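Page 42, continued from yesterday. The earlier attempt failed because a stray header line got pasted into the input along with the sequence. Redoing it now with the clean sequence only.
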Amino acid sequence: MKRDKSEYAVQAVNNAIDILELLGDGEHELSISDVVTKLNLTRSNVNKLLATLEMFGYVEYNRYTGNFRLGVKTFQISQAYINKLNIIEISIQVLQQLKQQTGESAYISVMRDGNVVYLNVIETDHAVRVLPRIGNVGPAYATATGKAQLAYYDQRDIDKLYPGEMITFTKNTIGSMDALKADLKLIKERGYSLDDEEYELGVRCVGAPVRDFMGNVIAGISVSAPVERIPMERVEAEVAHIVQEAAKALSVKFGYRG
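This time it went through. Structure tokens are written below.
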């Protein structure tokens, strides 16, 4: 007879996982008191668990603040997990649904050194369509999938990616770091990105970020179409929401619980 998994649960392991998830969910380091309060555990128990997790590299102690944060070991494991996933295969169903809901071509891309690499596309049924970009590399600051990912980069990293003059492709391409900063801030506020004829004239794209189980942005998805078929009114009333929901659905497949 199949037993409920809870019968096999080890409380100490449960508590350790709760601590790791608590540290992963927050934006800031946590003190022992924070952990005790939030998880309703005894201080002695939390001390022992944090010491053990620190010993194996799963948490780190900041001796300047006296607080704890996730350790490098959690990053190594998350990267090993991501490396074993086939992003193209996992994303197909979501991209197909995105194409069906919007009627437009749906893309997924990843970042590589300041550029986006388009991994897959489910093309629209319309006779007039945007030329597929599979395998192509484009500047992240001029594309919807790229900006959806850049919005969650540290500003110092963005400065390193684009240290010199930014190449413009159309009259709408972002051409300065100040303009890019303003656009990325807006993207984070509203939850979606926009390529408004910035890479190709006559083409508009709407994108959103895809996250992994640690909350890290690992890819971007978008829909792309001639501007006539997705005017800004449609973007704001329909398409942006659909793309955001698709990104959330794909993030869940990668273990994201936010």
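Notes: The beta strands are 59-62, 67-70, 105-112, 115-122, 137-139, 193-196, 203-211, 217-226.
Reminder to self: strip header lines before submitting.
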